[in-house]
UniProtKB/TrEMBL annotation, chains A, B:
The lineage of its organism: Bacteria, Bacillati, Actinomycetota, Actinomycetes, Mycobacteriales. Gene3D superfamilies: Phosphate transport system protein phou homolog 2, domain 2. This is Phosphate-specific transport system accessory protein PhoU. GO terms for cellular component: cytoplasm. Belongs to the PhoU family. Keywords: Cytoplasm, Phosphate transport, Transport. Residues 18-103, 122-204 form the PhoU domain. One of its GO terms (biological process) is negative regulation of phosphate metabolic process.
Length: 220, 220
C-alpha cells in the first residue's frame, strides 16, 4: 500500500535521476567546449553546478529527515542511505565536467587538446555521457541489471584513458609540457566522472538487492 | 547512561580514527617512495589498501545494522551516517596514496619527480600527513573546532598544487611530457587526498553540530 513515506522516497529517486541527467548534460557541454575551444561554457557550467549542488543539498536534508522520522528498515533504509551517497557522487560528476570546461577556457582561444588526441577525448566524452544516461535510468528504475551495465562502460573509459596516457608519454609528443599537463589532467577528469557513475551504480545495486556488486565492497 | 548501542558507536569511531591514521601512514610511505625512487612500497601499500578497505567494509556493515536495529535520531543518527561517508573517504585517501607509490614504481629506477619540483612534493607530503593526523583526531574527538582546522590545511595544499602546476607549464621545463604528466597527476593525487580529509572534517562538523561547515553544503 502506498503512503506519504513512499511518495517521499519516489520524490528523492526522481531528483537523483535528475541530478545524473544534469551531470551528463554538463559533461556533453564541457566536451564540446574542450574540442571546439569554447570559453563561454565554463561560466555557464559553474551556474549549472551551483544548481546541481543545491539539488543535492535538498536531497540530503530530506533523506535525513526521513531517516530520523520514519526509522526505515530493509530496502527503505538502503534507499535513503543510497540517496545520500548518490547525491554526493552526482554532484561530483558535475564538478568534474566544470573542471573540463575550465581547462578549455584557460587555453582559449587555443584548443587545450592537440589534434592527435582529439579522437580520444571525443570518445571519452561519448562514453561519459552514455554512462551518465545509463546511471540515470538505473537510479530511476532501481534496476540491478542496468547498474551492472555501468561497470562495463567504465572498462571502456579506462581503456581510452590508458591510450591517452600512452600517446602523451612518447618521444613523438611535440606539444610541450603545458599540453601534456592539460591532456593528462582532463583525461583524469573523464576517468573520475566514469568512476563516480560506477559508484552510483553500485549504490543502486545494493539498494535493489541488499548485496554488493562485484568488488563494490572494496570501494565502500 | 551508557549502553551497548553507544559502546558500538564508540567502536565505529575508533575504527574510523584508525582508518584515517592508516591513510596518513600510507601517504607518508608513498611520499618517501616517490622522493627516493623506491619501487617496493607500491606492493606493500597495495596490501595496506586491502586492509583499509576491509576495515571500511566492516564499518559500513556495522553502521547499517545499527541504523536498522536502533532507529537512532539526532546526533546518534548523524554519527552513523557520518561513519558511512567517513569510511568511504578514508578508503579513498589510502587509494590515492597507493596511486602515488605506483607512479614511483612505474619510473623506477628513475625518480618520477625532477629536482626542481622535489621541494613541492616534499611539502605536499608533509601537509597531507598532517591533514590525515588532524582528521584522525577530529574524528576521534568528534571535535568541530579541529574539523575547522582541517580546511585551513587544505588551503595550503591548494597553494602548493598551484605552484607545482606553474612550474611544469613554463618553457623552462626540460623534462619532457612523461615527467610533466607524472608530476601533474601525482600532484592531483595529493590535492585530492587533502580534499577527502576536508570531506571527513565536514562530516565530523555536521555530526558534532548538526549544521554544515562553511561551504560544506556545496560539497554534499
Amino acid at each position: 500500500m502506498r503512503n506519504e513515506f513512499h511518495d517521499a522516497l519516489d520524490g528523492l529517486t526522481a531528483d537523483l535521476g535528475d541530478m545524473c541527467g544534469r551531470a551528463g548534460a554538463m559533461m556533453r557541454s564541457a566536451t564540446m567546449a574542450l574540442l571546439e575551444a569554447e570559453s563561454s561554457e565554463a561560466d555557464r557550467l559553474q551556474v549549472d553546478l551551483k544548481r546541481l549542488t543545491s539539488l543535492g543539498a535538498a536531497v540530503h536534508d530530506r533523506a535525513y529527515s526521513l531517516l530520523a522520522l520514519q526509522a526505515p528498515v530493509a530496502r527503505d533504509l538502503r534507499t535513503l542511505v543510497a540517496a545520500l551517497h548518490i547525491a554526493a557522487d552526482a554532484d561530483r560528476m558535475g564538478a568534474l565536467a566544470a573542471h573540463v570546461a575550465r581547462t578549455a577556457k584557460r587555453r582559449y582561444p587555443d584548443c587545450a587538446v592537440p589534434p592527435e588526441v582529439r579522437d580520444l577525448f571525443d570518445q571519452m566524452g561519448v562514453v561519459a555521457v552514455d554512462l551518465a544516461a545509463l546511471t540515470q535510468s538505473a537510479v530511476l528504475a532501481c534496476d540491478a541489471e542496468e547498474a551492472e551495465r555501468v561497470s562495463a562502460g567504465d572498462d571502456r573509459m579506462d581503456d581510452l584513458h590508458r591510450q591517452l596516457f600512452a600517446r602523451v608519454i612518447t618521444d613523438r609528443w611535440q606539444h610541450g609540457p603545458t599540453a601534456a599537463a592539460d591532456v593528462v589532467l582532463v583525461g583524469r577528469f573523464y576517468e573520475r566522472f566514469a568512476d563516480h557513475a560506477v559508484e552510483i551504480a553500485r549504490r543502486v545495486y545494493f539498494q535493489a538487492t541488499g548485496t554488493h556488486l562485484g568488488a563494490a565492497s572494496s570501494r565502500l
